[in-house]
Amino acid sequence: MTEHNASHDPATSGAVLLAEVIYAVEQLAQEPSSYPAIYDLALTCDRSGFFESALVLYDRCLRIADTDDDRQIAYANLTAAFRAAAIAETDTARRTRHLRDGLYAATAALDPEGARQPGPMCVALANRAVLFAELGHHESALTDARRARDMAIELGMRREQLIAAVGEVIARWHSTLDVTVLSLIASTMALGADLDSGDCLRPLLAIEVDVLWSLGRHDEARAAMQRNIDHLHELLQTQTADRWDNVRAGVDRLRHASAGESDELTGLPNRQFLGRWLPDALLDDAPVCIGALNLDRFGFINEAFGHEAGDSVLQEVAAVLERVCRRGDSVVRTVGDEFVMVLRDTSPGDARVVFERVRQLIAARSWSSLPSSVHLTASVGVTVGSGAGNSAKLLATASDALRQAKLAGRDRISFR
């Protein structure tokens, strides 16, 4: 299986990793109960740039889904994966096939006889706008883009708002050479500044240069070209560093799910896994740092915006914590809005750096399910130790440190 836009230094590492993905999926029963675990891994591959693997896994989801809601979600995300795969593809024939297959998936996701969930409908419409635009169906692209934009704003789905804008830019520029798309490009870039959206924005980069050049603003066009090259280089460096561990974490989650050690909401390992894994992690003499993290005043989110919004926040927090963890570390959702991060072979000073980064990432984040005016903070309690027999004691000490951080005013780290 070839992965596009996902090259890594040793090619064999990619082959081994993808073999792990397929093997882990094959260990699960091919029945509806496995849908959440396979879907989680498909989404991880998709967001990590392994588009071909995502396509295979979303197709597997469709074959085992037993409800219209699950099928609609899988078709909507399949549309997004086809769009991403097409943008990354250099072979013209394969690219066209991805675009057309994406349209079929979008049509299925928007089937009036099936489920009518607004979120998946928005995903399908936004991505179909780009597919239509790339195939030259500009009026259809503009219709979908505007519908998707209105839905995305209403639902707070900023990624889909961004993708819809990309479809509109492509359609307006290639249909009428509308130079006013420059302002839409600028606002779209600003919208994507704090989202993990580098691949989504790629089509805009070339159009920005074309528009500036057509206006005779050659120096600006050259500057934009260089800026875009720098942006793509930075994006490639970031993806190269992160994407492999993201997918490995997804494979690990799948294994936890098959063993009953996975949290259904976030896909993270659960308390049962922590109880089995932590004593082994503490066997060595090297220091192990355990951090208990809790969102401050999280109950307000559920009360003010509903439990669905609260669940979305917890899923995003889980993703943030996973990105921070190194391979060999672990992050677990224990209960409610409380998470445990275990950092192996880590000094207290290094642990403070890691947990401070987590605290700042959460405090600065805009949450997809919440108004931009709503900000969350987190408190963290940390302890350090070793010895397999000390696992329960160390977890209790980390919890005590967390309570101390709460009592001291929240949004801080406390060591014990």
CATH class of the largest domain: Mainly Alpha
Order of helices and strands: HHHHHHHHHHHHEHHEEHEHE
* Percent helix range: 55-70%
Largest sheet entry: 5 strands, mixed
Residue windows where pLDDT falls under 50 for at least 5 positions:
1-14
Q: What's the rounded overall pLDDT mean?
A: 83
- Helix tally equals 16
What number of structural domains do the residues give? 2
The largest beta-sheet arranges its strands as 2-3-1-4-5
Kindly provide the radius of gyration, computed on alpha-carbon positions and rounded to a whole number of angstroms: 22 Å
User: Would you report the number of β strands?
Assistant: 5
The N- and C-terminal alpha carbons lie at a distance of: 49 Å
Q: Superfamily at the CATH H level of the largest domain? A: Tetratricopeptide repeat domain
Tell me, briefly, the overall form. globular
Structural class: alpha+beta
Give the second-level CATH assignment, the architecture of the largest domain.
Alpha Horseshoe
CATH topology of the largest domain: Serine Threonine Protein Phosphatase 5, Tetratricopeptide repeat
The portion of residues forming beta strands comes to 5-15%
Could you give the topology of this structure?
Blueprint: H1 11-26, H2 35-47, H3 51-64, H4 68-88, H5 92-109, H6 118-134, H7 138-155, H8 158-176, H9 181-191, H10 198-214, H11 218-258, H12 271-281, E1 288-295, H13 299-305, H14 307-324, E2 330-335, E3 338-344, H15 348-364, E4 378-385, H16 391-407, E5 413-415
Parallel strand pairs: 4-5
Antiparallel strand pairs: 1-3, 1-4, 2-3
Helix pairs in contact: 1-11, 2-3, 2-4, 2-11, 3-4, 4-5, 4-6, 5-6, 6-7, 6-8, 7-8, 8-9, 8-10, 9-10, 10-11, 13-14, 14-15
